[in-house]
Protein backbone atom coordinates (compact mmCIF):
# COMPACT_ATOMS: atom_id res chain seq x y z
CA UNK A 1 0.00 0.00 0.00
CA UNK A 2 1.03 3.60 -0.35
CA UNK A 3 2.40 5.61 2.60
CA UNK A 4 -0.71 7.78 2.44
CA UNK A 5 -2.95 4.72 3.01
CA UNK A 6 -0.74 3.52 5.87
CA UNK A 7 -0.96 6.92 7.60
CA UNK A 8 -4.76 6.92 7.10
CA UNK A 9 -5.12 3.62 8.97
CA UNK A 10 -2.70 4.78 11.66
CA UNK A 11 -4.71 7.95 12.18
CA UNK A 12 -7.95 5.96 12.48
CA UNK A 13 -6.36 3.65 15.05
CA UNK A 14 -5.11 6.57 17.14
CA UNK A 15 -8.48 8.34 17.05
CA UNK A 16 -10.87 5.37 17.40
CA UNK A 17 -8.78 2.45 18.57
CA UNK A 18 -9.35 -1.04 17.15
CA UNK A 19 -12.93 -0.16 16.15
CA UNK A 20 -11.53 2.32 13.61
CA UNK A 21 -9.91 -0.49 11.63
CA UNK A 22 -13.18 -2.19 10.65
CA UNK A 23 -14.60 -1.69 7.16
CA UNK A 24 -17.03 1.17 6.81
CA UNK A 25 -19.47 2.32 4.16
CA UNK A 26 -18.02 4.23 1.24
CA UNK A 27 -21.23 6.24 0.83
CA UNK A 28 -20.52 9.99 1.00
CA UNK A 29 -21.89 11.94 3.95
CA UNK A 30 -23.76 14.28 1.61
CA UNK A 31 -24.67 14.25 -2.09
CA UNK A 32 -25.72 17.73 -3.21
CA UNK A 33 -26.40 16.61 -6.79
CA UNK A 34 -28.46 13.57 -5.85
CA UNK A 35 -31.88 13.38 -7.50
CA UNK A 36 -34.40 14.43 -4.86
CA UNK A 37 -37.11 12.04 -3.71
CA UNK A 38 -40.00 13.91 -5.34
CA UNK A 39 -38.39 13.69 -8.76
CA UNK A 40 -37.62 9.99 -8.29
CA UNK A 41 -41.26 9.34 -7.43
CA UNK A 42 -42.26 11.19 -10.61
CA UNK A 43 -39.93 8.96 -12.66
CA UNK A 44 -41.52 5.85 -11.16
CA UNK A 45 -45.01 7.20 -11.73
CA UNK A 46 -44.37 7.78 -15.43
CA UNK A 47 -42.73 4.39 -15.77
CA UNK A 48 -45.80 2.68 -14.32
CA UNK A 49 -47.70 4.36 -17.13
CA UNK A 50 -45.28 2.50 -19.46
CA UNK A 51 -43.29 5.51 -20.57
CA UNK A 52 -39.89 4.79 -22.16
CA UNK A 53 -36.54 6.01 -20.82
CA UNK A 54 -36.32 8.64 -23.55
CA UNK A 55 -39.82 9.97 -22.90
CA UNK A 56 -39.29 10.21 -19.13
CA UNK A 57 -35.90 11.92 -19.55
CA UNK A 58 -37.32 14.46 -21.99
CA UNK A 59 -40.40 15.15 -19.84
CA UNK A 60 -38.48 15.68 -16.58
CA UNK A 61 -35.33 17.23 -18.08
CA UNK A 62 -33.15 14.40 -16.79
CA UNK A 63 -30.43 12.38 -18.41
CA UNK A 64 -31.27 8.93 -19.67
CA UNK A 65 -28.65 7.41 -17.34
CA UNK A 66 -30.31 9.03 -14.31
CA UNK A 67 -33.69 7.65 -15.30
CA UNK A 68 -32.18 4.22 -15.82
CA UNK A 69 -30.47 4.30 -12.42
CA UNK A 70 -33.67 5.30 -10.60
CA UNK A 71 -35.76 2.64 -12.34
CA UNK A 72 -33.18 -0.09 -11.79
CA UNK A 73 -33.15 0.67 -8.05
CA UNK A 74 -36.95 0.28 -8.01
CA UNK A 75 -36.89 -2.89 -10.12
CA UNK A 76 -38.69 -1.23 -13.03
CA UNK A 77 -35.88 -1.19 -15.58
CA UNK A 78 -37.85 -3.60 -17.80
CA UNK A 79 -41.36 -2.94 -19.00
CA UNK A 80 -42.14 -6.64 -18.80
CA UNK A 81 -42.28 -6.48 -14.98
CA UNK A 82 -45.35 -4.25 -15.30
CA UNK A 83 -47.27 -6.89 -17.22
CA UNK A 84 -49.50 -9.16 -15.12
CA UNK A 85 -48.07 -12.64 -14.75
CA UNK A 86 -50.05 -15.23 -16.71
CA UNK A 87 -52.05 -17.60 -14.59
CA UNK A 88 -50.59 -21.10 -14.45
CA UNK A 89 -52.34 -23.58 -16.69
CA UNK A 90 -53.39 -26.27 -14.24
CA UNK A 91 -55.12 -29.47 -15.18
CA UNK A 92 -56.68 -32.01 -12.90
CA UNK A 93 -58.17 -35.34 -13.82
CA UNK A 94 -61.65 -36.18 -12.61
CA UNK A 95 -60.95 -39.21 -10.40
CA UNK A 96 -58.11 -41.11 -8.70
CA UNK A 97 -56.26 -43.51 -10.97
CA UNK A 98 -57.11 -41.80 -14.25
CA UNK A 99 -53.46 -40.70 -14.60
CA UNK A 100 -50.32 -41.63 -12.66
CA UNK A 101 -47.17 -39.52 -13.04
CA UNK A 102 -43.79 -41.32 -12.87
CA UNK A 103 -40.26 -39.97 -12.64
CA UNK A 104 -36.83 -40.73 -11.15
CA UNK A 105 -34.13 -38.85 -9.24
CA UNK A 106 -30.49 -39.81 -8.66
CA UNK A 107 -29.06 -39.24 -5.17
CA UNK A 108 -25.47 -39.75 -4.08
CA UNK A 109 -24.75 -42.36 -1.42
CA UNK A 110 -22.47 -41.49 1.49
CA UNK A 111 -20.90 -43.18 4.48
CA UNK A 112 -20.55 -40.00 6.57
CA UNK A 113 -21.97 -36.46 6.35
CA UNK A 114 -20.54 -34.59 3.40
CA UNK A 115 -19.73 -30.99 2.54
CA UNK A 116 -23.40 -29.97 2.39
CA UNK A 117 -23.40 -30.36 6.20
CA UNK A 118 -19.78 -29.94 7.23
CA UNK A 119 -18.71 -27.36 4.66
CA UNK A 120 -15.52 -29.35 4.07
CA UNK A 121 -15.29 -30.89 0.60
CA UNK A 122 -12.42 -33.12 1.74
CA UNK A 123 -14.92 -35.18 3.74
CA UNK A 124 -16.26 -37.27 0.90
CA UNK A 125 -17.36 -40.87 0.43
CA UNK A 126 -15.38 -42.05 -2.62
CA UNK A 127 -16.88 -44.83 -4.71
CA UNK A 128 -20.07 -44.84 -2.63
CA UNK A 129 -22.20 -44.83 -5.78
CA UNK A 130 -25.74 -43.59 -6.21
CA UNK A 131 -29.24 -44.43 -5.12
CA UNK A 132 -32.08 -44.01 -7.60
CA UNK A 133 -35.40 -42.73 -6.31
CA UNK A 134 -38.48 -43.79 -8.28
CA UNK A 135 -41.58 -41.69 -7.57
CA UNK A 136 -45.24 -41.95 -8.56
CA UNK A 137 -47.96 -39.35 -7.95
CA UNK A 138 -51.68 -39.75 -8.62
CA UNK A 139 -52.83 -36.77 -10.68
CA UNK A 140 -56.15 -36.38 -8.83
CA UNK A 141 -55.41 -37.07 -5.19
CA UNK A 142 -51.63 -36.28 -5.19
CA UNK A 143 -51.08 -39.53 -3.30
CA UNK A 144 -47.42 -40.46 -3.73
CA UNK A 145 -45.47 -43.69 -3.72
CA UNK A 146 -41.66 -43.84 -3.59
CA UNK A 147 -39.01 -46.55 -3.70
CA UNK A 148 -35.21 -46.42 -3.87
CA UNK A 149 -33.41 -48.75 -6.28
CA UNK A 150 -29.81 -49.81 -6.80
CA UNK A 151 -29.86 -48.80 -10.47
CA UNK A 152 -31.91 -47.01 -13.09
CA UNK A 153 -32.46 -49.87 -15.49
CA UNK A 154 -35.58 -51.15 -17.20
CA UNK A 155 -35.88 -54.01 -14.70
CA UNK A 156 -36.01 -51.51 -11.84
CA UNK A 157 -38.59 -49.41 -13.68
CA UNK A 158 -40.85 -52.42 -14.23
CA UNK A 159 -40.47 -53.60 -10.62
CA UNK A 160 -41.33 -50.13 -9.34
CA UNK A 161 -44.35 -49.88 -11.64
CA UNK A 162 -45.76 -53.16 -10.35
CA UNK A 163 -45.13 -52.19 -6.71
CA UNK A 164 -46.79 -48.82 -7.25
CA UNK A 165 -49.84 -50.39 -8.89
CA UNK A 166 -50.22 -52.83 -5.99
CA UNK A 167 -49.91 -49.97 -3.50
CA UNK A 168 -52.64 -47.91 -5.20
CA UNK A 169 -54.82 -51.00 -5.61
CA UNK A 170 -54.78 -51.50 -1.82
CA UNK A 171 -56.16 -47.97 -1.52
CA UNK A 172 -58.93 -48.75 -4.00
CA UNK A 173 -57.29 -46.96 -6.94
CA UNK A 174 -57.18 -48.69 -10.31
CA UNK A 175 -54.64 -46.94 -12.56
CA UNK A 176 -55.81 -46.34 -16.13
CA UNK A 177 -52.83 -44.44 -17.60
CA UNK A 178 -49.30 -43.42 -16.67
CA UNK A 179 -47.31 -40.39 -17.78
CA UNK A 180 -43.51 -40.38 -18.04
CA UNK A 181 -40.79 -38.45 -19.80
CA UNK A 182 -38.91 -39.95 -22.72
CA UNK A 183 -36.23 -41.65 -20.64
CA UNK A 184 -34.90 -44.90 -22.07
CA UNK A 185 -36.11 -47.01 -19.16
CA UNK A 186 -39.71 -45.91 -19.78
CA UNK A 187 -39.44 -46.51 -23.52
CA UNK A 188 -38.00 -50.03 -23.16
CA UNK A 189 -39.85 -52.95 -24.71
CA UNK A 190 -40.22 -54.63 -21.32
CA UNK A 191 -41.85 -51.58 -19.75
CA UNK A 192 -44.18 -51.17 -22.73
CA UNK A 193 -45.06 -54.86 -22.71
CA UNK A 194 -46.08 -54.77 -19.04
CA UNK A 195 -48.29 -51.73 -19.64
CA UNK A 196 -50.03 -53.43 -22.57
CA UNK A 197 -50.49 -56.64 -20.56
CA UNK A 198 -52.12 -54.64 -17.74
CA UNK A 199 -54.24 -52.57 -20.14
CA UNK A 200 -52.70 -49.26 -19.04
CA UNK A 201 -52.17 -46.45 -21.51
CA UNK A 202 -48.76 -44.78 -21.68
CA UNK A 203 -48.53 -41.02 -22.20
CA UNK A 204 -45.17 -39.28 -22.67
CA UNK A 205 -44.26 -35.64 -22.30
CA UNK A 206 -43.20 -33.63 -25.35
CA UNK A 207 -39.41 -33.18 -25.61
CA UNK A 208 -37.91 -30.52 -23.30
CA UNK A 209 -41.20 -29.82 -21.51
CA UNK A 210 -40.89 -31.28 -17.99
CA UNK A 211 -43.73 -29.01 -16.81
CA UNK A 212 -46.20 -31.40 -18.47
CA UNK A 213 -45.14 -33.94 -15.87
CA UNK A 214 -45.10 -31.17 -13.29
CA UNK A 215 -46.99 -32.92 -10.50
CA UNK A 216 -44.29 -35.51 -9.95
CA UNK A 217 -41.53 -32.97 -10.69
CA UNK A 218 -42.88 -30.74 -7.92
CA UNK A 219 -43.26 -33.70 -5.60
CA UNK A 220 -39.61 -34.64 -6.10
CA UNK A 221 -38.57 -31.11 -5.19
CA UNK A 222 -40.60 -31.41 -1.97
CA UNK A 223 -39.11 -34.87 -1.39
CA UNK A 224 -35.58 -33.48 -1.59
CA UNK A 225 -36.16 -30.45 0.62
CA UNK A 226 -38.21 -32.19 3.31
CA UNK A 227 -36.59 -35.63 3.35
CA UNK A 228 -33.27 -35.99 1.53
CA UNK A 229 -31.74 -32.67 2.62
CA UNK A 230 -33.84 -31.88 5.68
CA UNK A 231 -31.75 -33.73 8.29
CA UNK A 232 -28.13 -34.48 9.05
CA UNK A 233 -27.97 -38.17 8.18
CA UNK A 234 -24.92 -40.15 9.22
CA UNK A 235 -25.19 -42.37 6.15
CA UNK A 236 -27.35 -42.89 3.08
CA UNK A 237 -28.77 -46.02 4.75
CA UNK A 238 -30.13 -43.87 7.57
CA UNK A 239 -31.61 -41.53 4.98
CA UNK A 240 -33.34 -44.42 3.20
CA UNK A 241 -34.71 -45.78 6.48
CA UNK A 242 -36.44 -42.48 7.17
CA UNK A 243 -38.23 -42.40 3.80
CA UNK A 244 -41.33 -44.52 4.73
CA UNK A 245 -42.03 -42.35 7.75
CA UNK A 246 -41.84 -39.14 5.72
CA UNK A 247 -43.96 -40.61 2.92
CA UNK A 248 -46.68 -41.54 5.40
CA UNK A 249 -46.62 -37.98 6.74
CA UNK A 250 -46.88 -36.56 3.19
CA UNK A 251 -49.85 -38.72 2.21
CA UNK A 252 -51.79 -38.68 5.46
CA UNK A 253 -50.96 -35.53 7.39
CA UNK A 254 -49.14 -32.88 5.35
CA UNK A 255 -51.39 -30.04 4.10
CA UNK A 256 -51.30 -29.72 0.31
CA UNK A 257 -51.88 -26.25 -1.15
CA UNK A 258 -53.56 -27.53 -4.35
CA UNK A 259 -56.03 -29.55 -2.24
CA UNK A 260 -57.25 -26.69 -0.10
CA UNK A 261 -54.57 -27.51 2.48
CA UNK A 262 -55.93 -30.99 3.05
CA UNK A 263 -53.81 -34.15 3.04
CA UNK A 264 -53.82 -36.18 -0.21
CA UNK A 265 -55.63 -39.08 1.47
CA UNK A 266 -58.64 -36.80 1.93
CA UNK A 267 -59.34 -37.06 -1.81
CA UNK A 268 -60.16 -40.76 -1.58
CA UNK A 269 -63.09 -40.43 0.78
CA UNK A 270 -61.92 -43.40 2.85
CA UNK A 271 -62.07 -43.79 6.59
CA UNK A 272 -58.68 -42.91 8.03
CA UNK A 273 -59.52 -45.01 11.08
CA UNK A 274 -59.29 -48.29 9.14
CA UNK A 275 -55.70 -48.90 10.22
CA UNK A 276 -55.61 -52.60 9.40
CA UNK A 277 -57.12 -52.21 5.95
CA UNK A 278 -55.02 -49.24 4.91
CA UNK A 279 -51.64 -50.00 6.47
CA UNK A 280 -51.22 -53.78 6.27
Automatic annotation (TrEMBL):
Lineage: superkingdom: Bacteria
Ranges for domain Integrase catalytic: 109-272
InterPro entries in UniProt: Homeodomain-like_sf (IPR009057), Integrase_cat-core (IPR001584), IS481-like_transpos (IPR047656), RNaseH-like_sf (IPR012337), RNaseH_sf (IPR036397), WH-like_DNA-bd_sf (IPR036388)
TM segment ranges: none
NCBIfam families: transpos_IS481
Name used for this protein in its record: Transposase InsO family protein
The species this protein was found in: Oceanithermus desulfurans
Lineage start: Bacteria, Thermotogati, Deinococcota, Deinococci, Thermales
